[in-house]
Amino acid sequence: MKVDMDKLVSLCKRRGFIFQSSEIYGGLSACWDYGPLGVELKRNIKEMWWRDMVRERDDMVGLDSSVLMHRAVWSASGHEEGFSDPLMECKACHRRWRADDTKDGRCPDCGGELTEPRMFNLMFKTFFGPVEEDAAVIYLRPETAQGIFVNFANVVDTARKKLPFGIAQIGKAFRNEITTGNFIFRCREFEMMEIEFFVKPDTAGEWFSYWLEERQNWYIKLGINKENLRLHQHGEEELAHYARVCYDIDYLFPMGWSELEGIADRGDFDLAQHAKHSGKDLSYFDPDSGERFMPYVIEPSAGVDRAALAFLVDAYDEEPDKNEIRVLLRLHPDLAPVKVAVLPLSRNETLVPMAKDVYASVRKCFTAQYDDAQSIGRRYRRQDEIGTPLAVTIDFQSLEDSQVTIRERDSMKQIRVPVAELTRTLELKLSGEPLEVLPPGGKYWLGFEG
Ligand code: ATP
Description:
Blueprint: H1 5-14, E1 18-20, E2 32-34, H2 36-55, E3 60-63, H3 71-76, H4 79-82, E4 84-89, E5 96-98, E6 118-121, E7 125-127, E8 137-139, H5 145-149, H6 152-159, E9 165-174, E10 189-199, H7 204-221, E11 229-233, E12 245-253, E13 256-267, H8 269-278, E14 284-286, E15 291-293, E16 296-303, H9 304-315, E17 316-321, E18 324-329, E19 340-344, H10 352-365, E20 368-370, H11 376-386, E21 390-394, H12 396-401, E22 403-408, E23 414-418, H13 422-430
Helix pairs in contact: 2-9
The site of adenosine-5'-triphosphate has 15 residues, from strand 10, strand 13, strand 16 and helix 9.
């Protein structure tokens, strides 16, 4: 369905996914705080990326480099000189715009005339140490990639990896963006998940195609509808100063097709620049061929916040339900902030001990939430709205037959299972097993019999 951004923003605020930064002071634009559910969603995205890109691969290692780096890094990388966007200011309302967000030299807000574009560096500057002088200027990193390049030799020396191999990193980045908006799509502080994959120069093309495919499949595996993804190749004028070839994986966001992740062939630009500026040898010795050369690098660079927005947009759904509308987030179970809700049918005191016992055993294995406020129907809706894939209900029958009901978010189907089999069943269901109720109209789930 076509998702209305305002509705999504309001759900995120109402249910505790995402809040405006410094809201009680009027807010700080393009900075966002992740609330109790948002932080779980974001952690899950990062966790799945780390699992799939690092832990389950033999050709990848991780890194966590510091946000603050030597100023020379940004001079060598070309960021001091070239990490800029063209800025135009409206002569009437004084709003500032990134030139590519404007048309015909007119202000998109009031139609006023715009100034000529001037280049504006997007790096946040600060001072290192107690003296605020030019020599003490350093930057908050605008990408995590440079931390990887300057550690290339350290990793080669210690991780015993042969080419091709990659170094992956998740961390905060900061960009003093000119035009912001569209919720968490463009923030001034955000998180990145970046891979620098080092290859022999003559294999760069193959590896580029491989990563293009691999990264699209990752989003699809985690629930993004294939139809909502497309590739966009950068033309000459769009290419960053370091890139030989670059594709964006675009997603169909509510405001239209926009970049979700960038995949660039950076050649040997970065290693060569750092070798030149630092005077250190950053070439690679290939023990198989006996050759020494500068590796090329393929960079899949993704934003955690943009991925979170794409997953939320793709999962958002509304469907008629009697006289109401059921709002739900069809999030992939691996991403859902809460996996299982434990719901006693009512607050009746005879139900509570069993419900608490069930909750205690479920929460050992899954992120779970116990909810006994209001009617069971309303509690199901609340869980649907935050994307909880499964709810376990304890009713009066449960006290007699030691069975509970599992209700699925998407189909609203229910099955009944013995408490003794509950965690195993939940685990199977969360991993996508299609389990059915066996005897027609029966109360028993016989999945584990026979
Ligand atoms: P854009 O053209 O949208 O400014 P970019 O091409 O400058 O993006 P890259 O430098 O390729 O972006 O960054 C890699 C990824 O980091 C992007 O695909 C996006 O997911 C994320 N990203 C970049 N800038 C921001 C931002 N200001 N807020 C949130 N995520 C961002």
